[in-house]
Amino acid sequence: MVRARDRGPALEGAPGFEVRRKETCSLHAPARCAEDRAAGAAGLVSRTGGWREGRGAEGPRSDGSGVRSERWGLGEAPKAKAREEKREDSVDLDSAVAVKAMLSLDDERTSVEAGHMSDVHAALLGLSHPHSLAHLRTLQAVSEVGSITLWDEDEALLQSTLAGQGEKVERTTTELGSVLDDERILFVVGALRNDLGPPIFMRAFEAGKHVITDKPIGKTAAASAEVAAAAERAERKLGVFYQNRALPPIRDARRVVEQGLIGELVSVEMRMITTQVQVRDPRHWLFNMDKAGGGILSWLGCHYIDQILNITQDEIVSVAAQIATRSGEDIDVEDVAALSLGFASGAVGTFHAGYMLAMSGSGYHNAVGYDTYVSVNGRLGRITYDSNGTPNSIYVESAHPSWASAPRRTFKYTFAESPAYGGASGESFMRAFIRACQGDGEPLATGADAVRVAKVVDAAYESSRSGRRVEI
Fold first, then answer.
1. Which of 25, 91, 156, 203 has the smallest count of CB within 10 Å of its CB?
2. Considering 211, 242, 273, which residue would you say is the last residue of a domain?
3. Are residues 131 and 44 in the same domain?
4. Paired strand residues for 149
5. What is the pLDDT of residue 49?
């Protein structure tokens, strides 16, 4: 059995210390005592009440979705037992948060650890969605899934998918009823058009199936809420592919906020621009209002709205927005949007999204087809990250007394390789959903989470139409 990863002492970020991460980093408890910090800077390591000198050493390595390494400079990485004993003497802003910080939320647990066998049967509904094959790769990459059923109304598409990507596929069918009647199937993955998915998902719940679907669930917040309510009535799990929640940088950003290191939230800045409509097939249903329900906000901007709700654990309660269609293509959804956000805490935020990059390639799985920036600003500090794809570092400033020795820190990540949608973190996201279906916890992103995001998007559309700020 793989145990939760041991956590190192609070030395990262101190002068002369380099922090290198693969897949996750450990953020120390913010109220660690001053002598701990001083000893760390001097190259000393706590040994249950005493101190001793240490030589440079690599920190613990872990399995799971990636290998983590920490360079401690002059301080030797302590033994697991010593770390566990030291925890009893540590003081944190909140003991529950301390546990989360020391026992990483992105630890991998296999189905065997949770007491389940790796014989789950799943079904993929829909093969023409831009993410269909990516979701299929995830099911094929996750060891807990033993076999897969594919459903689509297009027999030729079923056969071509089976020929090109048939690993684990046990059968294909054009009959949805036969999928929903199959008692072996634990859950279905929805990769369907926004206007077509909700009634199918409701049928799946009635048949006793759990559902994990691509965002945004339905065309509107109301349609998405109906699906979430159906899941509740059927006592089935509803997961939504806001899989960035499983990314170590995003998880660690949330931990920074949870631990009070940036203080009370003041403001948020977000930017997400990507490749132009002309290289994304303007004839696709994604650019048709009747089928998609919206444009850049409901398709891609929603990820960033979810990120900020997840990181800050605050609620967006009002939106003022301006949206437009400026690509010159024959589409009837917005391709650019600017939002002003009001949060329940009193904080404010901005979000700019659009299909605008003319020289960054094409396609829906373009690793460098983005220009993104996020800044979460508090009274004591801030968190920022930017990238042309998946963020591989976060920068944190904190005036909290516990960070006095190194108030500015950068955490870097090297992600493990995986064919899953979202990489190794995508596997983690799917595993969490499978565990939830088996009675162990909740999905990392639930139907309720998706409804919150959809309400913000709908409010933006209403604000742009009406010219006024919309309360949520």
1. 156
2. 242
3. no
4. 123, 171
5. 31
pLDDT tens string 284-304? 999 999 999 999 999 999 999
What local confidence, expressed as pLDDT, does residue 301 receive?
Answer: 98
126 and 185 co-located in one domain? yes
Largest CA distance in the chain: 71
* Residues 266, 368 share a domain: yes
How many whole angstroms separate alpha carbon 443 and alpha carbon 440? 9
Least confident window among 74-83, 123-132, 145-154, 325-334 = 74-83
Residue 234 in this model has a pLDDT that exceeds 80: yes
Taking 70 as the threshold, does the pLDDT of residue 444 lie above it?
Answer: yes
Confidence class of residue 421 from pLDDT cuts 50, 70 and 90?
Answer: very high
Residues 274 and 372: their CA atoms lie apart, in Å, by: 8
| Domain presence at residue 223 | yes
Q: Are residues 337 and 452 in the same domain?
A: yes
| Cα gap 12→73, rounded to integer Å | 9
Q: Are residues 219 and 320 in the same domain?
A: no
Evaluate if residue 3 carries a pLDDT over 70.
Answer: no
Indicate the helix (H) or strand (E) that contains 292.
helix 289-292
Helix (H) or strand (E) holding 447: helix 447-466
Regarding whether 225 and 347 lie in a shared domain, the answer is no
Of 16-25, 162-171, 225-234, which range is least confident? 16-25
| Contact (CB, 8 A) for 142 and 243 | no
Give long-range contacts, CB 8 A cutoff, 24+ apart: 291-294.
Answer: 291/193, 291/194, 291/195, 292/193, 292/194, 292/195, 292/219, 292/333, 293/194, 293/195, 293/216, 293/218, 293/219, 293/220, 293/223, 294/216, 294/219, 294/333, 294/334, 294/457, 294/461
Q: What's the average model confidence in pLDDT over 244-265?
A: 98
Q: Name residue 120's beta-bridge partners.
A: 145
- How far apart are the C-alpha atoms of 340 and 320, rounded to whole Å? 5
Query: Identity (one letter) of the amino acid at 108?
Result: E
Beta bridge partner(s), residue 265: 378
Per-position DSSP letters for 251-285, written without gaps between them: HHHHHHHHTTTT-SEEEEEEEEEEE-GGGS-TTSG
